[in-house]
Design a protein that fits this description.
Helix content: over 70%
Number of helices: 24
Strand order of the largest sheet: 1-3-2
Distance between the termini: 64 Å
Strand content: under 5%
Shape: elongated
Structural class: mainly alpha
Length: 457
């Protein structure tokens, strides 16, 4: 019957199968759902549909295709969009919390809306609502390291804020641009990073609205080996953040030693307990200064051997003067590394690296612990511990980073692991090659293969 065909077309909008609870949310009321349920039961009796647990499923993809192609293209898009809106309307009670987690039904609704990307939405309130939901859903995909899906959702959210989005809702539009910029970096799309950065800069006058995309731009340029561009942004930003940092023309060994020793003297006046009892940093500019200093440190040596100690010294000095942030842990770690390199002071190594881990514990920053551990072992452990221990720990750090979705530092851990194994010759090289291939395929799936090649080079 016509009603059964319509019910099958509705199910086909979700693909080969859909959860019964999601289908219920597509109905305007119980009477409509009861009618649809009777139609779906008839389809099951005619072997056009089957029940798979709590899911309605098509027995064959040709059946799904036939049901889906009943309508014209524009009718299908309109159906997808209206189905998505109806689910959102019925689930509105579950999305009232601004930053709370989204239930699976909301993702199902947004996927329907996303398919209808060619439809124009003109009602301002609806545009902002949809843009906000796509932002929150994209952030959730980000947490799961599903970077392509995250980018897709951020860009779909932006499609509702085109033209007058900056006037309609500046906050959401800026957040979507920043998030899309970050997602492009993690999807190895360097040109699109620059596009989103330029869009933010062209639509904002406040410098603090631009810092997130500028931070991503530094990482983007550095990853591509374009250190001149990365450093230009870094020194420009540091100056605008009112930071007292020497210009490159003033870099010399005497400045580096005097700055480093002054910071070390201040640090030595405090015990690890004193350090952990420091207040949290509240100055927004200083917080961002710490983020930019941490971002440039891994690449500072390529510019000048005096640059890394100056960066590490400033991060420690900022933490002692203004309080702690998560980046304080990395500043302390980098300072210890510089101390070992300059003075061969191994005693201080364990003393302060433990404090760095406790700083992250204070902030309950479990997601970035693998980054710190990989950094510590990359910078310090090879100076102190047997190389066999480094092999085991680098593998552990790689797995820990993958567990929290930190693909970037998982590749660092993988590269340390593979390179150390090759150097020692303690493993069968064919086995290592196979493992490296598997990990490369995983990074390829996550659009992170360029990052892996950069780290291996």
């Amino acid at each position: 019957s016509q009603d059964v065909q319509q019910a099958l077309t509705l199910v086909s909008c979700f693909g080969m199968r859909v959860e019964g609870d999601v289908l219920r949310m597509t109905s305007r009321d119980e009477d409509e759902f009861s009618k649809m349920s009777r139609c779906l039961e008839s389809a099951i009796q005619e072997n056009l549909l089957e029940m798979d647990g709590k899911y309605y499923a098509f027995p064959h993809d040709l059946v799904q295709q036939a049901a889906y192609e009943r309508l014209l293209d524009e009718e299908v898009l309109s159906l997808h969009f209206n189905v998505g809106l109806q689910i959102l309307k019925n689930a509105s009670h579950s999305i009232t919390v601004e930053n709370g987690s989204l239930p699976s039904t909301i993702f199902a609704a947004l996927e329907q809306v996303a398919i209808a990307k060619d439809l124009t939405v003109s009602e301002p309130t609806l545009r902002v609502t949809l843009a906000t939901l796509f932002l929150r859903a994209g952030n959730r995909y980000f947490e799961l390291a599903a970077f392509p899906s995250a980018l897709s959702f951020f860009e779909r959210g932006l499609s509702f804020m085109c033209d007058d989005g900056w006037d309609l809702n500046r906050k959401i539009t800026l957040q979507l641009h920043d998030s899309a910029c970050h997602a492009c970096y993690l999807n190895a799309l360097p040109d699109r990073v620059s596009i989103y950065r330029d869009l933010v800069i062209s639509h904002t006058d406040e410098f603090m609205d631009q810092v997130k995309c500028l931070h991503i731009s530094i990482l983007n340029f550095a990853l591509a080996g374009k250190m001149k561009e990365a450093l230009e942004i870094f020194f420009s930003v540091i100056m605008k953040l009112d930071e007292e940092f020497p210009s490159p023309s003033n870099f010399d060994r005497s400045l580096m030693i005097s700055t480093f020793e002054a910071t070390q003297n201040e640090l030595n006046k405090r015990s690890p307990e004193d350090l952990l009892n420091l207040p949290k940093m509240t100055d927004k500019k200083k917080q961002w200064a710490m983020i930019f200093l941490d971002a440039i440190f891994p690449y500072a040596l390529s510019h000048s051997p005096t640059f890394p100690p100056l960066v590490a010294s400033r991060m420690v000095a900022l933490s002692l003067e203004y309080g702690l942030v998560k980046e304080s842990a990395f500043g302390l770690n980098e300072f210890v590394y510089c101390s070992v390199c300059i003075y061969h002071n191994y005693d201080a190594c364990n003393h302060w690296t433990k404090s760095a881990r406790l700083v992250l514990k204070k902030f309950k920053a479990d997601a970035i612990v693998p980054k710190l551990e990989i950094s510590q072992y990359l910078l310090l452990s090879f100076l102190q511990q047997p190389i066999q221990a480094l092999i085991a720990k680098s593998f552990e750090c790689r797995q820990d980073a993958l567990a929290v979705g930190d693909i970037e530092h998982a590749t660092f851990g993988a590269c340390i692991n593979y390179e150390t194994i090759v150097i020692t010759g303690t493993h069968h090289l064919r086995s290592v090659e196979n493992d490296c291939t598997v990990f490369s395929l995983e990074t390829l799936r996550l659009n992170q293969l360029p990052l892996l090649f950069f780290n291996l080079s």
